[in-house]
Design goal:
It is a single chain. By secondary structure, the chain is mainly alpha-helical. Helix content is 85%, strand content 0%. The radius of gyration is 16 Å and the shape is globular.
Length: 95
């Protein structure tokens, strides 16, 4: 039986898969040549892996993984949180 949280996880995972697919589709058309294209494909692959993780893990396991990562790499986690906050703010303030 799926809970409302499972539905949200599925929605997030589908969104990540969609973003990865779009990035793969557009990677060859990005300015910057082969290096930028390769980076775009690598990012899309990472999004696909993250979508699988979200789909396969329950919320408690994800929280435990974030806590473990924060303990092992606090600087990287803070940097990632700041980047995510910046991107979220940019998305919310765009017209």
């Amino acid at each position: 039986m799926q809970t409302p949280m499972d539905d949200k996880r599925d929605t997030v995972a589908r969104g990540m898969d969609s973003a990865a697919s779009a990035l793969h589709d557009r990677a060859e058309d990005l300015p910057g040549g082969e290096k930028v294209s390769a980076a775009a494909h690598a990012t899309a692959n990472a999004l696909e892996n993250a979508a699988d993780y979200v789909r396969d893990q329950d919320i408690e396991a994800m929280i435990a993984d974030v806590r473990d990562a924060a303990k092992r790499h606090p600087g990287a986690v803070l940097l990632a949180a700041a980047a995510a906050g910046f991107l979220l703010a940019r998305m919310l303030t765009r017209d």
